[in-house]
Amino acid sequence: QFLMANKLDTAMWISRLFTVYCSALFVLPLLGLHEAASFYQRALLANALTSALRLHQRLPHFQLSRAFLAQALLEDSCHYLLYSLIFVNSYPVTMSIFPVLLFSLLHAATYTKKVLDARSSNSLPFLRKLLEKLNANQQNILKFIACNEIFLMPATVFMLFSGQGSLLQPFIYYRFLTLRYSSRRNPYCRTLFTELRIVVEHLIMKPSCPVFVRRLCLSSIAFISRLAPTVA
Known about the structure:
By secondary structure, the chain is mostly helical. It has helices at residues 2-5, 7-27, 33-58, 66-72, 76-87, 94-119, 125-136, 138-161, 169-181, 188-204, 211-227. α2 (7-27) crosses α6 (94-119). The protein is globular and about 65 Å long.
C-alpha cells in the first residue's frame, strides 16, 4: 500500500536500485569486460531516467520558456540528467560512474528505510544497521562525489587528446561543473574547490617548493578562479 500510494517515488527507488546494480557490475566486471561496457551505459540511462522523474517531481508543469529552463538548471536532478547524457555514449570511464553509483545508493537507502518503517518498526534489523552506517558516512560520501566531479574536468581534456573523447565533451562538462559549483542544495563542490586551493597554496608556499612550480600553481589557481561562476 505504501509503494502504491507513492508511485513516482517508488519508480525512482527501483531505477536507483537498478543503477546501483549496473554500476556495481561495471566496476566489478564479473560477467566480462564486454558486458561491463553495456552495464556502464545501462547505469547512466537508468540515472537519466531517475533524474528526469525527479525533475518532473520538482517542476511538474513543463513550459517551453527561458524562465522554466533557468529554473530547471537550478535543480540538481537537471545537473545529473545532463551528466548522464554527457557520458552515456562516451568511452567508459570508471571515475564517471562513481557519482552516479553513490548518489543512487544514498537516495535508495533513504527510501528503503521508509519502506522498512512502513512495513514494521523492527523489520530486518541487519539491513537497518547497514543503512544507518551508510547515513552516518553521508558527508564523506558527498565529498568524495564532489572530488570526482572536479577531477573529471581534466580527465575529459585528457580523453580528448588521447582520442577517446569528443571535442564538445570538455566544454559541456565545464558547464555541468559550473552548475554543480552554484548548486543551492549541494555545497560540496564549492567546499572541495576551496579546500583544494588551501591545500595547494599551503604546499607551494613551503621553502622546499621550486619557484617555477609555485608560479605554475599560482597561475593555475588564478585561471580557475576566473572561470568560477558567481554564487548568490
